[in-house]
Amino acid sequence: MGLSDKDVQHIAKLARLEVSDGQIADYVEKLTQILDMVDALKEVDTTEVLPLAHPLHMSQRLRADEPTEKNQRDLFQANAEDVKQGLYTVPRVIE
Known about the structure:
Blueprint: H1 5-14, H2 21-42, H3 73-77, E1 83-84, E2 87-88
């Protein structure tokens, strides 16, 4: 699939890019190469290929999900103006 100078100018306008007349030929060549590569990838048969989340078969090293600090809710809520059932109460701002 080849692009013309007019196609590149139109793409540049849509992308709000300033492309000088001297750069257009280079963009035509490079964008055509990219589109040719995409066309070649479309021809590859991938029906037997399973989708995967990550190309490497590795397990994630995660830390244990354990609390690292003690619960200090009562200490923190002691400074609050109004607390009900362990929750901070605030004035209503939307009616």
